[in-house]
């Protein structure tokens, strides 16, 4: 009932997302084997960059959610690093730690796209939770208006993902710049750091592509139903 020609593109995007995720794990694994010349750990790197930026009020905590659970919590002003990143002194550990600190710097600088993303959070949460039920209900009951509402809510979630892309790329840019500026990596090590950060960014691109294609599919079906 829900099959549509657009599904072929969505399947391709889904395969891309799976490949991107495998690249993240592969590049992180490879980067984890290369010890940084500075031999600094992720937590040391994070603290040094934060202090250099005057963000002494931002804390660093060990994340208990396992590998690759690293994130910055803007409400608590806490950078949470997974065990391999927190205690590791590899290029991968430094790259991830610096990336999360990049988000803290964005927060302090009131980076426009990050501010917009924060404002979209409640709408994105409602959209991601309610849209599937409204869309399925609309298709089953053949209620075009219900499908329309579902599309609007789903669009809010997609917009959040679109805004996330420049936020993530900017955080990675800040991360590489600070690592080089403060002498925590050499110019030769920049390439290895870039591979880790670029692979992570690719997962956001792939997941966003899937969401955009799904949104286009629903809009096409909605217009077909109206006609």
Task: Lay out the secondary structure.
Layout: H1 6-32, H2 42-52, E1 59-62, E2 71-73, E3 78-81, H3 83-87, H4 91-109, H5 112-141, H6 144-181, H7 190-226
Parallel strand pairs: 1-3
Antiparallel strand pairs: 2-3
Helix pairs in contact: 1-7, 2-4, 4-6, 4-7, 5-6, 6-7
Please provide a written account of the structure.
With 227 residues, the chain is mostly helical. The protein has one domain. 74% of the residues lie in helices and 5% in strands. The protein has seven helices and three strands. A three-stranded mixed beta sheet has the order 1-3-2. A hairpin with a 4-residue loop joins β2 and β3. α5 runs antiparallel to α6 and α6 runs antiparallel to α7. Pfam families: Zn_peptidase_2. This is Zinc metallopeptidase.
Short structural description:
By secondary structure, this protein is mostly helical. The protein is built from seven helices and three strands. It has one domain (6-226).
Uncertain segments are none
Strand fraction equals: under 5%
Write down the Rg: 20 Å
Q: Per the principal axes of the C-alpha atoms, what is the gross shape?
A: elongated
The total strand number stands at 3
Portion of residues within helices: over 70%
Q: Compute the separation of the termini in Å.
A: 18 Å
Mean pLDDT: 90
Tell me about the biggest sheet?
A: 3 strands, mixed
Write the element-wise H/E pattern from the N-terminal end onward: HHEEEHHHHH
Structural class call reads mainly alpha
Q: What is the domain tally?
A: 1
Strand order of the largest sheet: 1-3-2
